[in-house]
Structures are given as structure tokens and as C-alpha cells.
Amino acid sequence: MTEPKFDTASELREEFERQAEWGREKAIQYPHDRRNAVAAAHFDELAASVKDCPPEVLEAFYELFEDGNDSVEWLEMLRRAGLDQWPDTAEELCRNFIAARTG
Predict the structure, then answer these.
(1) Helix, strand, coil: what percent of the chain each, to 5?
(2) CA–CA gap between residue 97 and residue 103 (Å, rounded)
(3) Measured distance CA(35)–CA(40) in Å, rounded
(4) Environment class of residue 51 by beta-carbon count within 10 Å: exposed (0-12), middle (13-18) or buried (19+)?
(5) Among 12, 28, 60, 68, which one has the highest count of C-beta atoms within 10 angstroms of its own C-beta?
(6) How far apart are CA 10 and CA 47, in angstroms?
(7) What does each C-alpha distance from 6 to 65, 66, 93, 95, 101 come to in angstroms?
């Protein structure tokens, strides 16, 4: 029996969905701080854009993510994506991660 191939697109979409849900929870907790609701909406957009990310970009992203000793770069990129450095698409965020790991 062969191992199922890791579904990078699904995992990435689910990560963005988790980030969006966290933002929504914080928006309820801190209703006067609009940043959480804005971040949640943006992560929803990123989750929706995963389907348009080219397979070769997802593969390169996964290989670099999997080969890393830790996910510090990824966590930092998610933090920035939720705060002030908004990538327009999941592809852009993946390409930024690839550039950070290979540049």
C-alpha cells in the first residue's frame, strides 16, 4: 500500500481558515479593534485563492517547508500577513516563503 500524497493545497487552505477563525474570535473578544476582523477577512480571501495556486508553486513550498528545521519563517509570514504586509493571494504568500528560504 502506498502512502497518500500530502495535499499541500488542502493543508494550506485549512491553515488560512484557522487563522481567519482565530481573527474572528479575537474580533468578538475585542470589538473595538477592527484589525482582527480585517485580518480574518483577508485570511478568508487567502483560503479562497489557494485553488488558483499553481501546483509547481505548492510543491516547491511544501518541499522547503518540509525540509526546514523549524517553521519560524512561515509563522513570521503568517503573522505579517495578518497584520500589515498583505499578500494578495496564497500564491504570493507561497512565493514569498520560497524566496525567504532560498534567497
Answers:
(1) 75, 0, 25
(2) 10
(3) 8
(4) exposed
(5) 12
(6) 9
(7) 12, 11, 19, 19, 20
Supply the mean pLDDT for the chain. Answer: 83
Q: In this structure, are residues 45 and 93 in contact, taking their beta carbons and an 8 Å threshold? A: no
Cell numbers linked to 32: 473595538
Asked whether the predicted pLDDT for residue 24 surpasses 60, the reply is yes
Task: Tell me what pLDDT residue 69 has.
Answer: 56
Residue carrying C-alpha cell 511544501? 62
Predicted confidence (pLDDT) at residue 4 exceeds the cutoff of 50: no
Cell of 9: 493545497
Instruction: Please report the pLDDT score of residue 101 as a whole number.
Output: 78
